[in-house]
Amino acid sequence: MNLNALPKIELHTHLEGAAPPEFIRRLAQEKHVDLSGVFDDEGNYAFDNFLHFLKVYEAATAVLQTPEDYHRLTLAMLEKSADNGVIYTETFVSPDFCGGGDLGAWKEYVHAMQDASDMAEKTHGIVLKGIVTPIRHFEVGKAKEVARCAVETFGDWVVGFGIGGDEGAGKFSDFAYAYDMAREAGMHLTAHAGEFAGAQSVRSAIRDLGVSRIGHGVRAIEDMSVVAELVERDVVLEVCPGSNIALGLFSSWEEHPIARLRDAGVKVTVSTDDPPFFHTTMNDEYNNLARAFAWGEDVFKEINTTAAKAAFCNDTTRKTLL
Ligand code: ES4
Ligand code: ZN
C-alpha cells in the first residue's frame, strides 16, 4: 500500500507554521532580523511546550514583513504539500501577523496569497483556500477587527473564519460577536478547541460559536456526551495527530484517540497543523496512522471524502475533490 501516492485533502494548516526553517532563516538574513532563541543547534524550531511554541511561532513571523514575503511563503508551503500528494488544503492566516499588526494592509496580503495560490495551482495542481484567524490570546476586542478583515475579503480565496492561539485565554462566548459577523456574511466557521482544554471547550465551540468544524477537538473523548453531540450535529474534526503527539497531548500514535472517535461515529479528517514545527508531513501522518491502527487505503479514502464534503470551498471546487 503506497499511501504517499494517495491524493490528500488537508483542512488544517497554519501558513506561518508551514514555513520551512531555512525559509525563515533566509528572510532573517535578508532583513537583518535577529532570531536568537527560535532555532536549536540543528537548525530546527526550538520550543518546550505549547505556550513556548506560540512564542517561537510569533518570533519567526517577525521576518514576514511584506505581501511579497507571504507570496514566497505560500509558494514554498504549497510545493511541500504537493510533494505529499495534497491536492487541496486550507490554511489559517491572521491579519494580526500579516503587516505587523497594520490591519489596513490585509487586502494586499490576501491578494499576494491568492496570486501565489493561482501559480501553485497551475504548476502543481494544488488548490489553497484561506481561513482568517483571530488570535485568542491577543485582546478580545481585536477579534472583531479581524472579523471585519475577514468579511471584507470573503470570497473566492478567503472562505472561512476560525480562532486559534492559547485555548486557555478567555471564553468562546467572548468571541461570539466576531463569529456572528463572519456567519452573517456567509463565511464558514471553525475553531481550535479540545486541544489544550477538555471536552467542555468542544461543547462550547459548538454551542456558543455554531461552528461546523473543530480544529483538533480530540479531547472530546474525555466526555462521551460531547462525542455524542459531535455525532448528532455532524461536526467534523480537523485532527492533527502528529501535532498532538509532538506537543505531548498523547504519548504515542497508538494512544491517540482518532480511531476511537471514528469508531464512535465522529467525522474525522487528518492534517499536519504546523509541519516543520512538529517534524511531520501528510505522508508521515498517513503512514503512522496506518501502522498504529492497521488502517488500509479504504479508511484514508473515507477520510478524504469526509474532508472534501467538509471543505469550505464552493461546490464547483468540491466536485473536483469528490
Ligand atoms: C495556533 Cl495561532 C496558532 N498558530 C499555529 N498553530 C496553532 N495552534 C493553535 N493555535
Ligand atoms: Zn492549528
Question: What does this entry show, briefly?
Answer:
The protein has 322 residues and is α/β, with parallel strands linked by helices.
Largest sheet: 8 strands, parallel
As a whole number of angstroms, the C-alpha radius of gyration is: 18 Å
Number of alpha- plus pi-helical segments: 13
Overall CATH architecture: Alpha-Beta Barrel
Report low-confidence residues grouped into runs of 5 or more.
Answer: none
What does this structure look like?
- It is globular and about 50 Å long.
- It has helices at 21-31, 50-61, 67-83, 106-124, 140-153, 176-184, 199-209, 224-232, 241-246, 258-263, 282-293, 297-310, 315-321; strands spanning 8-14, 86-93, 127-132, 158-163, 188-193, 213-216, 236-239, 267-270.
- The mean pLDDT is 97.
- It has an eight-stranded parallel sheet, sandwiched between helices.
- Strand 5 (188-193), helix 7 and strand 6 (213-216) form a beta-alpha-beta unit.
- It has one domain (3-18, 67-321): TIM Barrel.
- Helices cover 46% and strands 14% of the residues.
- Helix 3 runs parallel beside helix 4 (106-124) and helix 5 (140-153) packs parallel to helix 6.
- It is α/β, with parallel strands linked by helices and 322 residues long.
- Residues 12, 14, 164, 192, 215, 273 line the site of zinc ion.
